[in-house]
Specification:
heterodimer, A: 79 residues, mainly alpha, Arc Repressor Mutant, subunit A, elongated, B: 217 residues, Rna Polymerase Sigma Factor, Chain: A, 2 domains, 61% helix, disordered C terminus, Znf_put (chain A), Anti-sigma factor (TIGR02949 family) (chain A)
Chain lengths: 79, 217
Amino acid sequence: MTDCGCEKAKKALEEYLHNELCSTEAADIREHMANCVDCSDELRVGQVLTEAVQRACDETAPEDLRAEVLMKLRSMQAH
Amino acid sequence: MQSAVLTRERPRVNLGPMSTSPNPSAKSVLFEEQAMQYIDKLYAHAMRKTSNRVDANDLVQETYMKAFAAFDQYEQGTNLKAWLHRILENTYINQYRKQQKQPFYAPLDDLEDWQLGDAESRTAMASRSAEAEAIDHLPASAVKDALHALPEDFRIAVYLVDVEGYSYQEVADIMETPTGTVMSRLHRGRRLLREQLADYAHEQGIGLPKKTGADND
């Protein structure tokens, strides 16, 4: 049994979520998550939070902006 | 359809050293080819910085002009997108923040955790799964508002990691700050965000059971 326990799992949760842990540490957390409802629910909140932010930040640059940037770039290199 | 893909003509561009004045130079062709594809990402970044379209437009334009001017310093093969995000951060700090009157800039990184509240205790009334469900069903506009209510440095750390998928080290390079600071901004930003979204969900009655009696609106 290598379960790292809730305290360590909660502390490392954000780094785990962002793939910042080395593979051994990540494996420990993953194993704990598989057996702990409380921590895996906490992880799920973290995941949906990330997804919600991704949805909210999806932007497309206005077409005029693209055109304007190109125009300025071309006038810049003409001088 | 497959043959159409295979025979699709590539746009003809003159990359040769012979190109003369009316034609774009090799440098500008290369720059346009490599950098313009990131305009949506830079615009999203600029919107997170400025919170309005007009300033975001200006910031993106400035960023591209600066990047083009400095393109000789960009090392081919390294992460161009991260390089552009970094230039955008710098441009904003040098030009836009200077213009804004900021009589008070709190040293947020120095705040203690207790000063920022505790998301876990605030949302302890509902189960984690109900909280996840609620966040999952929030309108994007509510998430955007909550994101923009965060201190700028927290918001950008969250944006660069959670949306752009940069590593903590890459964000440290873009924001020119130590990795530990990135982690702290990210952690606090996400915690505040979670807290605000839980409040919003409560108000709207989304997912979470209403607090009994305690609600004053």
